[in-house]
Structure formats: structure tokens, C-alpha cells
Amino acid sequence: MKKWIVILLSLLLPLALPAQEAQSADDGLTFDMDEYLYGHVRDSYEWHITTVKGKPVSIPLPVIVISKAGGGFHCFSSRHLEEGEYKGFYIAPAGSRYENKIVERGSDGSEVRPWDFSVTKNVAGLLINSALLLFIVLGTASWYRKHDAAEEAPTGGVGIMEMLVTMVENDIIKDCVGEDYKKYSPYLLTAFFFIFINNLMGIVPFFPGGANVTGNIAVTLVLALFTFFTVNIFGNKHYWKEILWPEVPTWLKVPLPLMPVIEIIGMFTKPFSLMVRLFANILAGHFMILGVVAVVFLTAKMGVAVNSGLSAVAVILGVFMDCLELLVAFIQAYVFTMLSAVFIGLSRQKAEIE
Amino acid sequence: MSLITPDFGLIVWMTLIFGIVFFILAKWGFPMITDSVQKRADRINASIKAAKEAEEKLRNLAAEQSEMIEEARKEQARILKEAAASRDMIVEQAKVQAQDEATKIMDHARTQIAADKESALRDIRKEVALLSVSVAEKVLKKDLEDSGSQTELVNRLVDEIGKE
Q: Which residues contact A335 (CB under 8 A, 6 or more apart)?
């Protein structure tokens, strides 16, 4: 019973936190839906935790920029940017081309984006989640180092990890890659757990979770690129033949290389779909939860009865959405890994003997 | 719009972080786990196979055992039969031998008896002859006290001998 209460409470947490924020915002201003939604899913230079009495409470993160206007290398705390310009850098205001990003003034006075290697909220989230992932996986591995796995089976957390690893390896990697799956299993397992843990941490509403990492297109782009390179670097002769000279009627290849062009486009659409699928699913999930929670604030000025009634509905819906997102977190990690495995498997296929 | 434009800095960081995580996990993380699990799976498979073999062996053993028991039983029956036969034979032989022995003894006894009888008869005859001679002597002594009778007897004897 106690366990269930804890679970229920933890599910309600995402609802509790933004509530505080909105109350404070309500003191002076009306609820800004756009800022609320995008503020929660986009990257930022500081890690905003909550707002107390109109003042934001946030963790400042290091800003690392290399000026394009000849200002050189700079590294400073994001706290300095709160007041406005600092060392010629400032966060672009709303309406600018680089809204919410660091910019500097170019020689002609226009806004120029410097080389920006800042440890943003997403980078910090990535670091934290990666450390967590390393801790979990290396911890699991160390269990096997200390025990003779042939003699005993792990229990508890190590057991869960073993179950997940075995499931991914047997159900996805072995089936989709085929023969020499062993070579690819570390990459695919890493991709699965990396995405899974980042998805899960993205659902956690407070620090150190809450960074919308896998819902950021740069992150999914890199993941998709890893798969793209894995597929194309280790693709065999048959794979390249299928792309450049597929077995179709000759008029489809000469004089107009119709099929090769389609196949080459296909090479890029595969990782592109991986990138967009993960990004869009996670981002949409965040939007849905945020939207449901926003009902509480949007109805705040409609009177106590309407507000409390709709808030109750929002809470129930929020619990449902969070559960759904837990499922999506797993499914998207699973799908990304499976499709990567399928693409790798296709690039390793041997020519059919006719 | 910033949501769908990948940020260069984040791409660099992500590549770096994911690359490092991948390197560490691929070197010290997942192979350790998957190999260990594989090892255990192999062992379990080997154990199952061994158990199956042992079971098979056991079943064979049981069959062998029952076969052996059956054989032993047959042997026993055969031995018993043989023993009975040899017993019968021995008894038969003994009987025959006893018969022979008995016959021999009887024969021996019969001849002995016959011989004894003969010798006894001879003795008796001798005795009777002596007895009769002595009787005759005595009779003669008494009868021949007078000369007439002596003469008469001699005559009769002579007659008798003559008749013979």
C-alpha cells in the first residue's frame, strides 16, 4: 500500500512543480502559454528549476563561446547574461533570428552567432544521464566480474539490467542483424540504453531530470548519424551493388539512373526517419504533458469551482499521460534500436544465390 | 523554428558524449554482460544435455538391469533343471548300483549257503555213516553172540551183495 502511495505521489510531481511557477506568474502577469510550453522543451543557458515569488531559481551553467567577430575564446557563467550584455555577448531577444541564443555584434552591427560550445541545459542533462548510464551499466558489469555468472544468477537491479540487455540482444539484435551480430551489439545496446535513460530522465520533472534531451533534434541527429555511418561503413559489396546497380529492368538504370538515385536518397531517408521519429515522439510527449498541466493555470482565473474541477481532470489526465510517456520512452528506444539493427542487417545481407 | 534547427554546439557535445559513452560501454560494459549471460546460457544448455544423457543412460541401465535379472532367472531355472536332472540321474545310478550290489551280495550269499549246505550235508552224512557203523557194530555185537545168527547174517549179507 505504502509503495502505491509513493508511486502515485511521484506521478503527481510533474503537476506540482509547474503549479508553483504559475502561481507566482499569476501575481502580476497573465499566463504566457507559448513561453510556458517552449520554455520547458527548448535548450537554455541555465537550468531553470523553479520560480519563487517572481524570481527564477536556476543553476547557472558555463557558457563557452568563440567569437566570430574576433573577440576570441570566452568562458563565463550564464549568470552574467541575466543582466544583459556581457563581454559583447547577449541572448538574442524575442523576434530575432537567433531567439534565445547567444549572439554578438558583427562588424556591420548585425547579430552574429558565435561558435557556441556552451554547456547548456541539454548538455548538462546529457552529462548527468550519461554518468548515470555509465554507473548503471558498469555497476552491472562489475557484478559479473566479481561473480561467476555460470554458477549464479543476479538478483535485483543487476537482474533487471540483465533482463533488459538479454531482451535487446536476443529480440532485436540477433534477429535483425543476423550472423555477425556480436560486432554490432555493443553499439546497438549503447544506443538503446542511452535513448532509454534520456527518455526516462526527460519525464522526471525536476533536477537532475527534465532536460528535453531526446526531444532535441541535434541529439537525435547525432544518434541517427551514428547509425548512418555504422550502416554505410560496414556495408558489404552486395549492399552497394543494390544501391548503385539494383536488379531492375535496365531502362530504369540507363540512361537515366532512376533507381540508383532513389536508392541513394533512401540511404539518407532511413537515418532521417530515425532522427525525426525519436525527436517528434519525445517532443510531442512533453508537449502533451505540459498541455494537460497547463489546464490548471489557464483556468485559474475562471473561478474556484471551474478551476478545481478542471484541475482534477488535468491531474487524472496528467497521470495517464505520464504513464503513456513511460511506455513511449521504452518503445522509442526499442524502435530506434530495432530499426538501426534492421538497417545494419540489410547492409550485411548476402547476395541471394539464384 | 529553433526546435527543428539542430544547434551546432549541442551536436558537438552530443557526438563527444555519446562517443565516449559508447567507447566505455563497448569496452568494459556490455561485452562483459552479454558474454557472461552467454556463458551461463551455454552452461545451462550443457547441463540440460548432460541431464538428458544421464537420464538416457539411466533408462538404458534399467533396461540392462531388467535384462540381466531376466537372464539370471533363466540361468537359475536352467541350473535348477539341470540339478534336478543330475539328481535324478544320480539316484537312478545309485539305485542301479545298489541293485547290482544287492544281486552280487545275494549271489555270493547263495553260493555260500549252497557251499555251507553241501559241507554240512557231507558232515552229516559222515556222521550218519559213523553212527550207523557204530550202531551196526553194536547191533552186530549183540546179534552175533550166538554163532547161528552170525552165520545167518553172513549169508544174508552175502545174498544181498550177490543180488547187487
A: A277
